[in-house]
Amino acid sequence: MTAVHQDTPRLGLRANVAQFSLLVGVNALVGGMLGQERTVVPLLATEVFGVPGYTAALTFIVAFGLAKAATNYVAGTLSDRFGRKPVLVAGWLVALPVPFLLIWAPSWGWVVFANVLLGISQGLTWSTTVVMKIDLVGPARRGLAMGLNEAAGYAAVALTALATGYLAAAHGLRPAPFYLGIAFAGLGLGISTLFVRETREHARLEARSHVARADGRHDHLGDHLGNGEVFVQTSFKEPALSSASQAGLVNNLNDGLAWGLFPVLFLSAGLSIERIGLLAAIYPLVWGVGQLVTGGLSDRWGRKWLIATGMGVQALGLAIMATAEGFGWWATAAVLLGAGTAMVYPTLLAAIGDVAHPAWRARAVGTYRLWRDGGFAVGAVLAGILADLYGVRTAIGTVAALTALSGVVVAVRMYETRHDPAHPVPTGDPR
């Protein structure tokens, strides 16, 4: 009798604190796999392989973004069909060869291939940790859950970018910085296989107890949407879902630009690798730590205006990065870019969770992340072409303008998605 009680799923952060905390740690390892590249790989392109032109040098981000975007979409469907844990474990298996490929790559093409594998791995692992946390906490603390998840991931990105910068300065661009990736992949696979538990039953429990919004918004979508319907609603039709999808794409468009071009800009200004690593870490560190605050704030203040304002703050940071000169100004710009992204990132995921019915929420998250991480590829191509034609600063300034425009779209089109489950539509209400 006791065993049955222990295996019965319960919703809420307190009821699932052990598994939730474990998944926070797993996502930190996922972020570390990405962070091993933030400082070093753009410099490998120019300093080791002599890749000509910005567009060609950013092919590794295009490969990563396309692979991750496509895998995000598949991950949602797979996790609904087979469960969350098998998808998570599969993602770590794909990650295992990545640091070895980066260490031993004899040509730039091998680095691009490693980033295809990294994108697939990130799509499977990061998407699944997001869905699993949403499963566990239920509707009341969704913003906080996403803040903790994304904070762990991007704080790890930042700290690993900083660490690899110092390792590269002390021991060279290869192989020392990528030893961290080997450790992260091994730990992630072991913890996910041995200790993480399946959460799909938590989503089914929430679906059985789902209540409609008091204002009747979006509940007409129902709980039996097919894959194509989920894609269309999330991408284009449903105002909040589609507004979140375009904002996510633009957010990662500017992140792809930051990943690929900022280290090159700083190197051209004569900064040392240690200082480049520090600047590369400031932006995701502020982003990561900031989400510890902004995720919970969105549960109290709402989603819409945090997203719209955050896009504006990002645009300001990019504008300063494009026009200013020197470490101090660039550090200020990185702080603003990180703060704006912290306002946006967990809040967009929480908004998707607000709108999507638990029965098709994993697929909606996958579709949103398809668009969001497609922004890496769009950003790398756009930034590379503009940088080759007009220079790095023009590329950054153009992306700043696009980011501001995205915030306007959210302000005009998106409705507030946070709702109070304590005030459902009464039984028999025609809404």
UniProtKB/TrEMBL annotation:
Residues 11-418 form the Major facilitator superfamily (MFS) profile domain. It comes from the Bacteria. CDD domains: MFS_MdtG_SLC18_like. Signal peptide: none annotated. Keywords: Cell membrane, Membrane, Transmembrane, Transmembrane helix, Transport. It is a multi-pass membrane protein. The keyword Membrane applies. The chain crosses the membrane at residues 12-34, 54-75, 87-104, 110-131, 151-170, 176-196, 256-273, 279-298, 305-323, 329-349, 370-390, 396-415. PROSITE patterns: MFS, SUGAR_TRANSPORT_1. It is found in: Cell membrane. This is MFS transporter.
